Amino acid sequence: VRLCGVDSMTGVDIAKKVVETGIERTAEEGLSDKIAFVNANALQSGLPDASADFVYSKDAWCYLPDKQLIVDQAARIVKPGGKILFTDWIEGEGLSDEEAQRFLRLMKFPAIPTLGEYAKMLENAGCTVK
What we know:
two-stranded parallel sheet; alpha/beta
């Protein structure tokens, strides 16, 4: 809330422990009246359409096999003119097959799109990509 300059925010996580930790830390910071948490699958968060000024995710979408579904959810939740910001593992340019396989042996993700593929998914969801 303080860093983003917004009046309120809602965090969504499928892991109950992550939500519990978020609630505890929010209370410690005196922000319980401004930050809420939902323990849910991000694809079925229950958040209303066009209810967020921004949607933010940090390295979480990599665990979802169908990226278009999560992009569509973010586009559904964000208000017109709002922003969708996320970080995620993406397929790097110039990797040899051997290098790519070495990384994939260490990290198990169902799909790793390219930056261009993510841009296309956002456009398919009706977003403007800048």
